[in-house]
Design goal:
Layout (H helix, E strand, L loop, with lengths): L3 H12 L3 H13 L12 H10 L4 H9 L3 H45 L15 H21 L1 H10 L3 H7 L5 H11 L4 H9 L2 H9 L5 H24 L1
Helix pairs in contact: 1-10, 1-12, 2-5, 2-12, 5-6, 5-8, 5-12, 6-7, 6-9, 8-9
Length: 241
């Protein structure tokens, strides 16, 4: 039975000479809302504003805003509304398009691990499965969310139980989302901890990615995806042999 180090080694072997393709493919899929796991503004500015407000008296703070022309307020409001609208639309696009792109990214990584041809165009190869892929994403999200309402830990456990559903549907396009989740749950019995350990083994790399302001994740994400796919390849062979 392979361990985290074995899956990482197999991933590195598969990525050898293909890093550029893997980085580009993973980045494009991510932009479109796709990820290996099918089941995905902050208040800093406002907090800073409140903190700065403490440096003024109440009247001084009010005077600053009163000096801003109405036209500027209208323009600013329009800009903010435009940005919010674009963000909402893009989030919806990522949710819908990302459903089948996720399956395409899985197919890319399956080909990568098996030593077959893996091209960026494969992330769109499951577009015909849009309906099933979208329902899988929605169904998994609902189920995991409901389990999370009980306690956080059960929600995390169920997310691991259904984590292979995307792989299963990718390799078996004829099955339903319910069947893919059922098979994944069965397949992950006794394997959830192994997957957790595999993911945790990347903690050093993730810290490095954070230190590099996210740039490192351009290489870390393809590496993790390939290792996870190697993990799926092993447990699926054990399940169906």
């Amino acid at each position: 039975m392979n361990k985290a180090g074995d899956f990482r080694e197999r991933a590195r072997t598969a990525l050898s000479g293909r890093w550029a393709s893997a980085v580009g493919t993973t980045l494009l899929a991510s932009v479109l809302g796709g990820s290996i796991f099918v089941s995905t503004g902050n208040g800093a500015g406002f907090t800073t504003l409140l903190q700065n407000k403490e440096n003024y008296t109440g009247n001084d703070f009010d005077q600053i805003f009163q000096q801003i022309p109405i036209a500027a307020w209208v323009l600013l409001t329009g800009i903010i509304m435009g940005i919010v609208t674009i963000m909402v639309i893009w989030t919806l696009v990522q949710f819908f398009v990302g459903s089948f792109v996720s399956l395409g990214l899985i197919q890319y990584n399956l080909n990568l691990i098996d030593g077959r041809e893996a091209t960026v165009g494969q992330i769109f190869s499951k577009a015909s499965m849009f309906g099933k892929a979208l329902w899988l994403r929605i169904r998994m999200g609902i189920v995991v969310f409901l389990w999370t309402l009980l306690l956080v830990i059960p929600g995390i456990i169920m997310s691991y139980a259904y984590s292979m559903a995307g792989y299963i549907m990718t390799e078996n396009p004829e099955i339903s989302a319910k069947e893919a989740m059922k098979i994944s749950k069965q397949m992950m019995k006794g394997n959830k901890w192994r997957l957790f350990c595999l993911q945790f083994s990347f903690i050093g790399w993730m810290i490095l990615g954070t230190v590099t302001m996210g740039i490192g994740f351009l290489w870390i994400n393809p590496y993790m995806n390939a290792a996870t796919t190697a993990f799926y390849d092993e447990i699926s062979r054990e399940e169906f042999q």
